[in-house]
Amino acid sequence: MIRFSHIFLYRGALRWPFIIILWLTLGLLLAVTALAQSRPDPKLTPGALNLEVTQTTISATICVRGWTRTVRPPAQYTTALKRQQLSKFGYADHHLSDFEEDHLIPLDLGGAPYDARNLWPQPRATADGWNADLKDELEAVLARRVCSRQVPLADAQQAIATDWIAAYNRFVIGEP
């Protein structure tokens, strides 16, 4: 009778292909996990809007320099929420400094400042490279385009809430 363990250990003939396949499979699983963390879970963080910000009010709200400082929640609020969400969302990493408590729909696009449905612990570093810095870049590009009337506010809000990585590719890189 041949034991399963002997198949992979017999003179090393099949051992290395097995190890390579195992490592590739684990790498793929890690990449899929990282990709999932690059985007918030839409069931937990669907996004929420600040009802004071509309297309007709952007000249008096988000397009006024410094306006977001008037609505931004204090750090003690976002830090406490981040701590709760790291546990609730099932993150293995609980180091607060590894995450930015991010507004899915940013304040400068009319996102709700205090609504937990619009806040999520976004990883500062991910295996796939889609991190908080890239989302911040997208937010700045979209805010400029909304305030210059190149992109309607609702379109920018929908794009970033639905899939911020696809929105980055569309609005920052220029891919359709």
Quickly list its features.
176 residues, globular, two-stranded antiparallel ribbon, 7 helices, mainly alpha
Question: How would you describe this protein?
Answer:
The structure is a single chain. The protein is mainly α. The protein has one domain (39-173). The chain is 48% helix and 6% strand. It has seven helices and two strands, in the order H-H-H-H-E-E-H-H-H. Strands 1-2 form a two-stranded antiparallel sheet. Helix 5 (132-147) crosses helix 7 (164-173) and helix 6 packs across helix 7 (164-173). The longest helix is centred in the N-terminal third of the chain and has 24 residues, at 15-38. It is globular and about 40 Å long. It starts with a helix and ends with a helix. Mean pLDDT is 86; it is low at 28-36.
Total helical segments: 7
Main β-sheet, spatial strand arrangement: 1-2
The oligomeric state of the chains shown is: single chain
* Residue share in helix: 40-55%
How much β-strand is present in the residues?
Answer: 5-15%
Order of helices and strands: HHHHEEHHH
Number of strands: 2
Average the pLDDT over all residues and give the rounded result: 86
Main structural class: mainly alpha
From the alpha-carbon coordinates, what is the Rg to the nearest angstrom?
21 Å
Tell me, briefly, the overall form. globular
Low-confidence stretches: 28-36
What number of domains?
1
Question: Could you give a short account of the major beta sheet?
Answer: 2 strands, antiparallel
Question: How many angstroms separate the termini?
Answer: 59 Å
